[in-house]
Amino acid sequence: PALPAVSTTWHSNDDDVYRAPPIDRSILPTAPRAAREPNIDRSRLPKSPPYTAFLGNLPYDVTEESIKDFFRGLNISAVRLPREPTNPERLKGFGYAEFEDIDSLFQALSLNEESLGNRRIRVDVADQAQDKDRDDRCFG
User: Could you give the domains of the chain?
Assistant: First the structure.
């Protein structure tokens, strides 16, 4: 007996085609960084001063002034920009910014990956132990 004809047009029946739901653009991370709560684990922040941020990938022509300008509006108490021992004119490309309060440090961390000069700089919590260790080497 002949098999019943099987329709091969099932896949073109528009009503059954799965359509991806439209993308909700409001949940995409397009808001400026400052408008988003920084994705920082507050437990990593120091419990007591100094509230120091490590600054990485700095342009070599950066100055303390440009760092203070970058963190404008935050309570910044000190900027340290280590220089090459063999060439004191040349910065090492990283530094530290010390803040007067934990909230300023927290806000500073939200500027991670923002541009300073022509570079996207890294802002992270300075490792306190490392920090002291470095100081001994720099000044001792």
Answer: 52-126 (3.30.70.330)
